[in-house]
Structures are given as structure tokens and as C-alpha cells.
Target: Bifunctional aspartate kinase/homoserine dehydrogenase I
Amino acid sequence: MRVMKFGGTSVGGAQQMRRVVDLAAAARQETRVMLVASAVSGITNLLIDAARVAQERGPVDALSARFEDTHAAISRELAGELGPARQKPLEEGLAALASELRGLLQGVGLLRECSPSVLAHLSGLGERAACLILEALLEARGLAPKSVDPREVLICSGDPLQATPMMDEIRSRFAPLRESGGPGLMLMPGFFGGDGKGKTLSLGRGGSDYSAALAAAALDAELLEIWTDVDGIFSADPRMVPEAFPLPEVSFEEAMELAYFGAKVLHPKTISPARERGIPVRVCNSFRPEHPGTRVTDAAAPPQHPVRGLSFLRDIALINIAGAGLKGVPGTAARVFEAMAHAGISVVLITQGSSECSISFCVQHAEAERAVKALEVAFEVEREAGKVDAIERTGGLAILSIVGDGMRHRVGVAGTFFSALADVGCSIAAIAQGSSERSISAVISETDGPRAMAHVHGRCFGTTEVVELLVAGVGSVGGELLRQVRQQAPKLRAHGVDLRVCAIANSRHCVASSEGIPLEGWEEKLAAGGGGPALDTFRDWARAKRPGRPIFVDCTSSEDVALAYPSLMEAGLHVVTANKKANAGRWSHWRTLRQTASRHQRRFLYETNVGAALPVIDTLKNMVRTGDTVLRIEGILSGSLSFILGLVEEGVPLSQAVGTAMERRFTEPDPRDDLQGTDVARKVLILARELGRNVELEGVKLESLLPADFDASGPLEAFLARLPKVDESFQRRAEALRKEGKVLRYVGSVTEAGCSVGLVPVPLEHPLAAVKGGENALSFLSERYSPTPLVIRGYGAGAAVTAAGVLADVLRLVEGPLP
Ligand code: ADP
Ligand code: ASP
Ligand code: MG
Model:
């Protein structure tokens, strides 16, 4: 025996009905079959709407006409295969249901009341109509089914809209159908049963799945098939998470948890009857019957990931009852939940603080007000005595749950879950973990849902992770970064990282696009972009969109931009910067940056501040973190000066060497930043601060590369025109040193005595003498690295390496495994 349940879209039209019959015919070849059908999609909603409108004395004719027309149209479309002998009675049957509906609506209108019993009866008309059509079509195929009336076999009691099945009675009513000589093909409408005395009782919205499961249990079926419109149970609702994928297998427990916490593909009560009798369940796609779908069994293969799936339950309210008077009072929790039970309110999730001073729980939003009233009554005495504070209710919430048998006894799953929520700036109102360790739920704001689901899914399953870049500054470094992103993006995508440039700005223009700006011809797009303060646009974009992993990338050298980092972090952006102005600004700003980053759980990365892409900052941080004491840092920290001094050594006049360095874009936009030593001083300052030194830029002893009496002020053009004046003296100095076997190097150092930068004559055999042509070199003498210091040396000038260093920082923020 196999029970096959077809959902609304699977019986949504003539073509779908034909497919149901095909699938039933094929199954019938193998075994006895019971079909359970839902209403044509949209019809149940229509009926419930009509009942409400009738109760409010609104116009219902159009609604009842739509009920009639929808079914008549399907019947007409099937006329060819039904033949007049079958179509006529079908039309009469459908017309009778339509007139039953009109009668019921009229009654509701007259009484201005739609009792739960009436609504249960009325809302089941859709299933009955669908079954009439299927019955005629099956007969036409020579498969005449036995029609089963659920009101006679699915015996229930309790709430007419959420009835409780009486399994023993159901099994005894099903007995004649169960026996081996029983009918080979049966057809039953889903969604409702009866009280055994003629009254219809509904199993609740989406209840056809439950009807089918009850029938499967009562018939001792070997298999229960849930035919729907997706390829099985997905790792998350595919409408919410496009990355979600169908799960080949899940355990009964996992399916129950997923369904309970909102996976609409299964009614939450479906699994229990099947599990009790060990009946495997298959969830499959009637639009793609060849797809294997999901098998739900008690022997599901262990999953690859600890998390099997995610679910999302909307329309939730959190109720909180708190007060010092609750502490240590036995029976408080019992009274809270007794009050809920008494009011017929089902509690979805419970948490309690260890102080026992507060109990929080979730209910359906629609029941929140009643829940609060019920508690106010139950705790009236305590409230009056001031032992219980106001009972609070927070609406607009949802429950995001991760579910998986593999989570049991696994460390770190909750950590990944909550850190993923933090990544997308999602605050958590309450947390619950089932004692089975099979699910962890977080109560979050419903509006945070889609991005939270997408991001948690990405983190749990390593599916594509979207990284959004907002790039400020498109000079040599920024421009090169965009080129490198464009080149690397396809390779990264193949590894599950979708690197998107969502905004580009320079000092005059800004373009933004959530889906990412296609990078070919970005220059024209930027030029055509709007003006105005780009950083405001970035902040607004991040606040409004709340994207997954948004990173502000600063490739400017602007102080104003550097001052804006804290506000950008507050808006939810991580910051990666090549701009030294932030870390070399006031010490108070340096500290604020780190405090803001930590408070908002944002990352602040700046590896390119010293030595372009050379791993300087990271190395130094690791030395400090692991307890080494750094005694002295010394190095050639300016690729531009190393390049210029290299040329001077070859006999090139200083002014010409500066010109060449500028042409190659090796210098800062204003080369005086390099020549006067300010740029190196900033780097030395940044290194010193990594060592925990509270220093300001003025505290760095600075000797300019230019002679003290040279006037370096005024506009850049004028300065460059004056520069040849120093060529001769500079050349002479270099020449004199050469005779002594020495060369000039511009060296920055951090020692016990303090920070300094300046020209230092070094002997040719000194390691720093070999560093030229744009190279950087740093030596760290420390307690561990002593007497031989740790040395980092390599190319450290120009846009290509700096941009690569920025990109490397960006990729440090990516979780998944990279190429
Ligand atoms: P039916 O009418 O066949 O009962 P439903 O609309 O009740 O279909 O359930 C199927 C829908 O459930 C899918 O179209 C999908 O949008 C939604 N859904 C939610 N969560 C999941 C999930 N985890 N896996 C698959 N589908 C899901
Ligand atoms: N047709 C009913 C509903 O929409 C039952 C079901 O589809 O499962 O709720
Ligand atoms: Mg359903």
C-alpha cells in the first residue's frame, strides 16, 4: 500500500490533474494506492476569504463564482478525455458543491457569524471539488477509484479548526480498507476529517499532508509520498534562499523539527504518525517526477555538515514576564504555561534566564494580546504586590532555526550560527536549544530574516558567499584594485565567493548598485554617476540593505575619509584601508577605531599601511600577541625613497629621480610627503602603536631628505621647479659617502629611545645597503628574534602590490576555503 498526497499546485489545473492520474496509474502497477488530494491552489484561501467577507456582510457573489468557474474550467478542459457521459455528472457534482458554498455563505451572512464548525466544513469544499474531478478522470482511464469520505474514517475531536485525530478509532474505521482484499485504488480529500457524527473537523492549514500521514498509518502503508512543487525538502526555503539545495535524505526527527519551525513543505504533524509505524516518507516534485526528492526515514545517512537545514517561522511575538518576586518561587513556570494552556494558546519556544527573574516565550503574533491578558489575570496578585513587573510583548519577530542530527555533541555549531547572525548585524531577542541538541533557534526581527537566512545558509553549507565592496578612491591603487577584482572575480566565484563591487566613488562622483557594478568600463559609469557626499551614500546603503559582508575599501589618502571610519563601522561596514591617515592620526582616533570595530563586531584591516603587500602588520601583531617583546624595528619603509635613492646612487640627479618615480606612480600624490619624510614617519608611528606605544606624529623625530634650508612650501608645480637646486649638493654628499664605502638610506626606526626617520649613511656591507629600486626591508629585533632579527624584505612600491595587499585584506574577511 502506498499513500500519495498531491498538494495544491500539483492539482492546480487540467494538465496537473492528468499528471496525477499518470503517477497513480504507474504506482498502481506496483502496489495498492490511496490518493489524497488537496484543493486546487488558491482555492482554500478563497474559501476562507469568502467566509470572512460573508460574516462582515460584504459581497461574496464574485468569490463563489470564482470557486465555481475555476473548477468548471478544468472540467471543460478535460472534456475530450472524460467524454459527455462522465463530464455531465462531474459538472453537476461541481455545481452542487458551488451551491452548497452559496448556501453556507448566505447562512454566515444572515447570522453574521461563522462558527469554527461552519468554517471547517466550508474550507474543505476545495478538496472535495478537486477529488470530484480526479475521480472522473481516473474512471475515464479505467482506474475507477473507491472514494473515501474522510468524515467517516478520519475521526477526530477537539478544536474544529485544529482537530486532534483519534488514532485507535481511525484504525478501526480504516480496517476494511486495510485488508488485503480491499480496494486497489482509493481517493480521499485531504485537510479534514469528522467527529463520526456527520460534523466536519479541519486538521488546520496545510493539513492535507497530515491527512495522508494518518491514512498511511491507518493503512499500514509501506510508503507515504508527498507530491509537491519543489524537488523535496530543501536545506532552506528555496523562495528565501536561492542557494538552497534539495536534501536527498533526512531523519524523521530532522523533518519534524524543520516543519515545526516553519518549513512549509510539510505540515508539522505529518511525520509523527509515519514515524510511529516506521513508514518512510518521500517528498517529491509532481512537476519533475523523475527527480528522487527527499527520503525521510529513521536511517538517514549521516550528513556531510552538522546542520541539515534551516527554517524560518514568521509572525512571532515574544512575551516576557519578569520581576524580582519570581525568583526561587516554585511553580511560577507551571503557572505561566498553565495560563497559556487554559487560553488555548500554543507556545512555540521557551527561554528562561538563570536568575529565574524572567521567563520569555514565543507565541503566534495573532495570539500575543490574548497571551498577555491571560498572564495579567494569572499573576494579578503578584502584579498588585509589585512582585511582577509589566508583562511585555514584542511583535514583528521570527524564529530562525538550524536543524540537524549531526549537531549533537558537536562543538562550534552554535558559534558559527550566532557569529553569522552578528556578521549581518542581526540582533537576537532570545535563544533556545532543544535538549535533543537537534535544533538551535534564534528569535530575530522578521525584517532581518532574508539576509540572515541567506548568510547563515552560506556559513553552514559553504555555498556562495557574497562579499560587497564599496570602494572610495580610484587613483592608482583604487584603479588597480578594480582591475585585479575584475580579473580574480571569476576564479573566486568558482570557489564560492561572489566578490561584487557595489559602489565606487571618487571626490566628485559616486555609483552604486546592489547587484554589483559590471567592471568593464567602470570609468564611464563613475563619470556619469551622481555627485554629493559619497560616504553618506555608502552609510545609507549599508543601513538600508544590510548586506552579507559589506566592506568599505579606502584607497584615498584623505584625512576626512579616515575620520569617517567609525561611522561607517556603525552602519555595518568592515573597513579595509590603504590610507595611512587613520592609523597615523591622533591617538584618540586610533583607539576609537578599535573600540568601534569591537563594539560593532566589524573588522578593520590595514596591512598595506606599511610595506605595501609585505606581511608587516600581521607579523608584528603575531609577535606581540604571542608574548614576544620587540626591542627594535628598523627598516627602509618607503618604496618611493628606496627607488629614488637607488637612482641617485647610479648618478641620476635627485630632481630627475623624483620625476621618474612620479611618472611610475611610485610616490604619494604629492611627492613631498615622501621626500620630507612624513610618509615614513606615519609608517613608523603605525608600527610603534602596534607595540602599544601611545605616540603622536609630532613625537617622531623627523629629518627630511631635503636640506634644511630648502624651501619646500607652496604649490607642487613651483616646488618641482625649484627642486633641481638641491641636485648638486645631494650628488656631492652621495659621492663623498661612496668614497667612504657607504650609501645613503632613508631609514625609519622604533627603539627604546623613541621613533625616528632620516637619512643614514650605511656601509656597503650593511644589509640595508642592498635595499633599493623600490624595495622595502624591515628588521625586527626581539627577545625571541635575537641576536639575528626577523627580516622581511621585498618589493614595496607601486599600485600593483599595494592593490594586491588591499585585495588580500578583503579576502581575509571571507570565511570559506579559497583557491
Ligand atoms: P503543497 O501545496 O504541495 O502542499 P506547499 O506550498 O504547502 O505545497 O509547500 C511547498 C512549498 O514549501 C515550496 O514551494 C516552498 O516554497 C516551501 N518551502 C518552505 N520551506 C521549504 C523547505 N525547507 N524545502 C522545500 N520547500 C520549502
Ligand atoms: N488546502 C488546504 C490548505 O491550503 C490544505 C492543504 O493544502 O494541505 O491549507
Ligand atoms: Mg502544503
Summary: Residues 2-229 form a domain with the Carbamate kinase fold (CATH 3.40.1160.10).
